[in-house]
C-alpha cells in the first residue's frame, strides 16, 4: 500500500492551543490497512511518532522532530439492540461533539451530558472524559485498538481499560502502544433514558428555560449553554479546556480547609474522599485573568490556560508550574495537569 506523507508541516491547525510548531512528517490514517503498512515502513521505524486526534488535550512545547499520525478513522453504526438499549460503534477519528449530536438526533441517550467536549471519539476513553456527572466509563461497552508493535487489532473491555478519574491504561502502562480504531457505546432507547441531573447548574439552567420534564436534547442544549458561558472557544482564543484535574483530597484535609475557606466547593467521592474545584483554588491563589509572555489564565474560568495569540507551549508549561507551586503553597493541594505534555 502506498503511503502519502507531508513534510515540514505546520501543526497549528492540529492543536487547539493554536501554537505554531511544525512536524518533520505527518500522515492521515483513514483505514486500518494503512496502519499495517505504516508500522513496517522505514519512516515509522526510524522516527519517533505521536498520534493525534483533535489535538484538544495536548501541549506541544516545540517542533516535533518525528512523525505525526492523524487518526481519521470514521463511521457510526449500530451493532446490536434490544427493547431498551443499543450498542453503537463509532470510528476513533469521529469528532466527539458531532457524535454526541448524532446520538441525540437519533434519541439515543447516555452521552448528552458530554456535549461540546472537544476532541475525538478515540481520545474519549483514553482520558475517560467526563462532565456534569457522567464519564465515558458510564456508557462504555468496549473498544478496538491497533497494536502498533504486532499490527493486530485487539478488543478492550471496561476492565481492561482501567478507567479512573481522567485516566485509563492508555495513559500509563500502554501509553503510545495503541491507536484506538473504534469505540462501542451502550446507549439507551427513549423508553429507558436515565437522565443525569445531579449538578445544580443543569437544574438551574433548565428551570430558567421553564423546562420541567427535560429531554436528552434539552440537557444537551443546557450543557452547551453552560460550557459556552464558562469556556472560551478555541477558534477565538487558543486553549485546551480544563488544564488541570479537579484534585481529590481526604475528608480530614477537606474539613480542615473548610474551617478557613467556608465557600470551598467540593463534591463527595466516597465517605473518605472529596473532589475539590481546581478552578476555585487557582482563582483564590490570585491567578484568574493573569497574563504573561503571550499566555495567561482565562478571565472567566481560572481552570483554563490560554494562548493570547503569540504564546508558546513552553510558556504555558512554565505558567502551569507557577500555578501548581502557588496552589500547593496556599492550600497544600497538588494540582495535576489534565493536558498531555509533549516535549
From TrEMBL:
**What reaction does this enzyme carry out catalytically?**
UDP-N-acetyl-alpha-D-muramate + NADP(+) = UDP-N-acetyl-3-O-(1-carboxyvinyl)-alpha-D-glucosamine + NADPH + H(+)
* Keyword Lipid biosynthesis annotated: no
> Which PROSITE patterns has this protein been placed in?
FAD_PCMH
Enzyme class, broadest EC rank: oxidoreductase
Question: Which cofactor is recorded for it?
Answer: FAD
Metabolic or biological pathway: Cell wall biogenesis; peptidoglycan biosynthesis
Q: Which InterPro entries match?
A: FAD-bd_PCMH, FAD-bd_PCMH-like_sf, FAD-bd_PCMH_sub1, FAD-bd_PCMH_sub2, MurB, MurB_C, MurB_C_sf, Oxid_FAD_bind_N
One annotated Gene Ontology cellular component of this protein? cytosol
* EC number(s) reported in the record: 1.3.1.98
Select a single GO molecular function from the record's annotations and give it: FAD binding
Which locations, inside or outside the cell, does it occupy? Answer: Cytoplasm
- Active site feature: 166, 242 (proton donor), 338
UniProt KW keywords: Cell cycle, Cell division, Cell shape, Cell wall biogenesis/degradation, Cytoplasm, FAD, Flavoprotein, NADP, Oxidoreductase, Peptidoglycan synthesis
- Every copy of the FAD-binding PCMH-type domain together lies at 19-190
Domain of life (superkingdom)? Bacteria
Query: What GO terms describe the biological role, i.e. biological process, of this protein?
Result: cell division; cell wall organization; peptidoglycan biosynthetic process; regulation of cell shape
The family classification in the record reads: Belongs to the MurB family.
Alphabetized PANTHER family for the sequence: UDP-N-ACETYLENOLPYRUVOYLGLUCOSAMINE REDUCTASE
Q: What does this protein do?
A: Cell wall formation.
Tell me the protein's name. Answer: UDP-N-acetylenolpyruvoylglucosamine reductase
Q: Which organism is it from?
A: Marivirga atlantica
